[in-house]
UniProtKB/TrEMBL annotation:
PROSITE patterns: PDZ. This is Peptidase S41A, protease. Its EC number is 3.4.21.102. One of its GO terms (molecular function) is serine-type endopeptidase activity. The lineage of its organism: Bacteria, Pseudomonadati, Pseudomonadota, Betaproteobacteria, Nitrosomonadales. Residues 89-157 form the PDZ domain. SUPFAM superfamilies: ClpP/crotonase, PDZ domain-like. Keywords: Hydrolase, Protease, Serine protease, Signal.
Amino acid sequence: MTQKSKFVLVGVAGVLAGAALTLNLSAIADKEAGAPLPIEELRAFTDVFARVKNDYVEPVEDKKLITEAINGMLTGLDPHSAYLDVEGFKDLQVGTQGEFGGLGIEVGMEEGFIKVVSPIEDTPAFKAGVKPGDLIVKLDDTPVKGMALNDAVKRMRGKPGSKIRLTVARKGVDKPIVLTLTRAIIKIRSVKSKLMESGYGYVRVTQFQEHTGELLAEALNALYKNNKAPLKGLILDLRNDPGGLLNGAVAVTAAFVKPDALVVYTEGRTPDAKMQLTARRENYLRPMQADYLKNLPQGVKQVPMVVLVNSGSASASEIVAGALQDHKRAVVMGTRTFGKGSVQTILPLGNGTAIKLTTARYFTPNGRSIQAKGIEPDIVVEDPSMPSEDDGLGIREADLAKHLANPSDKEGTSIVVPADDEAGPAEQPSRERKPLAPLEPGEIVSKNDFQVNQALNLLKGLQILQAH
């Protein structure tokens, strides 16, 4: 959500980092009037700086030392705070507009390794078979152990048409998997839609970008026009949607609920980190922008809905699912979501760089924090084309080192849900995997997508019940 000097991001994408920043202790002292400076800690920092500067085996520029100190300060806080150099800040801004160069992988840091959160649909990574939970161990011939997340992302990005070799470790696979990917300009249309059959629409949101709300409005208008009658049911697919801009989440929710309905509220330390965002236009539109939700078909706010989610549904997509679930506007179906309940604010520093800083936790309208827990679906339906949730092959917020605790946890630690069968997974019956059928030209969802078909069956059942 663009503001005077910052915008709010609730995604999980890895970003670039590394540049110079002047440390102005006097400014810090002025802002924290009355608060004593940590003199001993600052003395230790300057001592270490001097030792490295004078005694390291090779000369090191001051700029590099300060940059790495800033990187360490931010990455040591949580998995989502980061320092953005000039190039990284530009890339992030371009990415939120739906176009950037690279492979199309959402990544996070875990114990010094790079873990895949989700490959973005229709990108080189997605087409090459990169999976959520994959551990990237090499980029070309360079091991990534200990490499900063931002440096790894920078290596994966590059000139379109150039190639990079990823070596990934995948749970359940004995040998590392080597994938050669060709970089491309990643152009993502964040909303896709189709008429499943007469009366039933399907909308998929792949990311929450600057124009997601507008694209959703276009998709809904087209569905009603093509159906030539009010829809009987609608599937909103948020599976593997890693998040994005907060105003995009508000816009998508606002399309389906009353204008005064609460979508999400945030709690942080500063006044501007405490927000209550309702489905009103000022919470999702830029100043002077025309309201693209104003002329939606009348039936949009009453049409029966199913929201599909899985472990790759994170942050902004969890805000939408949680709001629609709390307002009893939709049935949430699928598997438990990623569990990222924090808000990152992009704070420009005036020299072309910025910091991405976790500034608040967000809560669903009923006061639920999904941090490190996720959204529990109303109806659990696993995807037969993917490993079972019990296999533990996916990655969630609770699996990331230094993740924020859920404020409802009395002990301040992540919730650990025990397996239903205490005998362990070895004694549980195996489940046959059923790969999805290849997409036909022009299609956006596989015909044998089990979860989509179950959602469609539920909507038809609701239609029958309403008719009686």
